[in-house]
Design brief:
- This protein is mainly α.
- The protein is about 70% helix and about 0% strand.
- It has six helices and no strands.
- The longest helix has 25 residues.
């Protein structure tokens, strides 16, 4: 009887450990559909868009997520970590171009009142600062951009 009870407890512990999801250092798999849904839902909540607008915004974000996933998949694992300053600048310029394209596309889908709400939503997101970041380094930096002593 004790063996059965012990086995049952061990099984419950192992199932609960697996149900917790990815731990620190593990990667979650992001699906383009999930990312597009999350972004479109955020705009729907903030701006009060209708079904036709939602479909257009969802379609745009889905294309963007698939393009982003394809670009990332083309990179070799070593390339993701070892980039030059010139590559970093090119990535930054490309990201700014994509951001401007996104704003133009969303502006064409929303009316003026909704777009004003969208801009307000973006401003609120920017004021909160980074949420997470890579390897837990997101969030506000100390004065002068220096890391606290003892931080990696």
């Amino acid at each position: 009887m004790k063996k059965i009870l012990f086995s049952l407890v061990a099984l419950l512990i192992s199932v609960s450990a697996m149900a917790q999801g990815p731990q620190r250092g593990e990667r979650r798999e992001f699906k383009p559909e999930d990312m597009a849904t999350r972004q479109a839902d955020r705009i729907k909540t903030a701006c009060g868009i209708n079904g036709k607008q939602y479909k257009a915004i969802y379609g745009y974000f889905l294309r963007q997520a698939k393009d982003s996933q394809a670009r990332f998949a083309k990179m070799q694992p070593g390339e993701r970590r070892q980039i030059t300053d010139e590559q970093r600048q090119a990535f930054r310029e490309e990201a700014q171009k994509r951001q401007q394209e996104q704003n133009d596309t969303i502006k064409s889908i929303l009316n003026k009142k909704q777009y004003a709400k969208y801009e307000k939503m973006l401003e609120e997101q920017r004021s909160r600062g980074p949420q997470g970041g890579f390897r837990g380094q997101g969030g506000p930096r100390p004065q002068g951009g220096q890391r606290p002593q003892g931080a990696r």
